[in-house]
Amino acid sequence: MMSLRCHRSKSVWATLAVLALCWLYIFPVYRIPSDKEIVDEVLRQGQTWTRNQTGIDLYRKLLTECCDPKRMFALTKENSPIGKALWKLLTECCDPKRMFALTKENSPIGKALWYDGELYHYHKVNNETYSFFIQDTPLQFPLKKCSVVGNGGVLKHSECGREIDQADFVMRCNLPPLSKEYNADVGTRTHLVTANPSIIEKSFQSLLWSRKSFVESMRAYGSSYIYMPAFSMKPGTEPSLRAYHALADAASDQTIVFANPDFLKNVGRFWKHRGVHGKRLSTGLFLVSLALGLCEEVTAYGFWPFSIGLDEQPVSHHYYDNILPSSGFHAMPEEFLQLWQLHKSGTLRMRVGHCANAGEEQKRGK
């Protein structure tokens, strides 16, 4: 009897060992460097950066093949002759065809838009939904120099505002504050800003009671495009549509465009295959992915998810507060490491320190 038990025990352990090896093969174990190790790595790299056109072209090609981050930038009602001309230019420069925004071609009335953040829910495009689509592609392509501005605390006292504003196109994340006290660090110009439905829910009570504070707060972004993932999760659809109505009824300068859930899903897969294992990508990484497909040159600011800075001093989570996100939802350190590899390869540029020396670098042609 004792011998039989030992034999069974060995068999169980052998089976578990095989399963563990299979798991490690499929999901290999890796260690994220510590904050201090990241700081040391960035300091070793220094401020030197060299543009790599081959790398830029490669990533544009990869993103086009996986996600087609241009043709679906906005929910458009039709492809007018002007729109067709723009698509021709887009195709020649970056092949902008399928997944960033929804067009009549890929989102007709009756089409099911499957929520990318949920498994079993979808929204069927109806007459009302279709009326929210803008008439034509909102952007003039190709975009040249783009600034993608995250909200990391590393921006505080960075004096990057002037450099950010010098870009041809400025993208920002999640309706960040742009009051005068922050202008020197984050700039003032905005061409596109994301607005997650959760912000509408938390900051503006889902727009169920009053629209005034929401409409007034949006003036900080000028005549920009408000990019909303209205069809990522079902609870976010109604607040997004209320935001649309609030700005439309107030004759606001902003234009709301809704994200294509297929684009968001495919970009998530793209980065997961490259080592980002969070439940969902951060808004910042979505925007960088978009910029790599839309822009000739991309510089990212405020992407620093670590608790200490290059001077080994504490860094707040955001440049405007230190409220931490829910743990386990995003894999911010993994995202940073992917972006840093692109920085080192010259595919995009990351600003993680002080920008006061920007003028000197431009004189030196860097």
From TrEMBL:
It is a single-pass type II membrane protein. GO terms for biological process: N-glycan processing; oligosaccharide metabolic process; sphingolipid metabolic process. Disulfide bonds join C146-C295. Pathway: Protein modification; protein glycosylation; Lipid metabolism; sphingolipid metabolism; Sphingolipid metabolism. Its EC number is 2.4.3.8. It is found in: Golgi apparatus membrane. InterPro entries: Glyco_trans_29, Glycosyltr_29_Sialyltrsf, GT29-like_sf, Sialyl_trans. It catalyses: a ganglioside GD3 + CMP-N-acetyl-beta-neuraminate = a ganglioside GT3 + CMP + H(+); an N-acetyl-alpha-neuraminyl-(2->3)-beta-D-galactosyl derivative + CMP-N-acetyl-beta-neuraminate = an N-acetyl-alpha-neuraminyl-(2->8)-N-acetyl-alpha-neuraminyl-(2->3)-beta-D-galactosyl derivative + CMP + H(+); a ganglioside GD1a (d18:1(4E)) + CMP-N-acetyl-beta-neuraminate = a ganglioside GT1a (d18:1(4E)) + CMP + H(+); a ganglioside GT1b (d18:1(4E)) + CMP-N-acetyl-beta-neuraminate = a ganglioside GQ1b (d18:1(4E)) + CMP + H(+). GO terms for molecular function: alpha-N-acetylneuraminate alpha-2,8-sialyltransferase activity. Belongs to the glycosyltransferase 29 family. PANTHER family: ALPHA-2,8-SIALYLTRANSFERASE, ALPHA-N-ACETYLNEURAMINIDE ALPHA-2,8-SIALYLTRANSFERASE. This is Alpha-N-acetylneuraminide alpha-2,8-sialyltransferase.
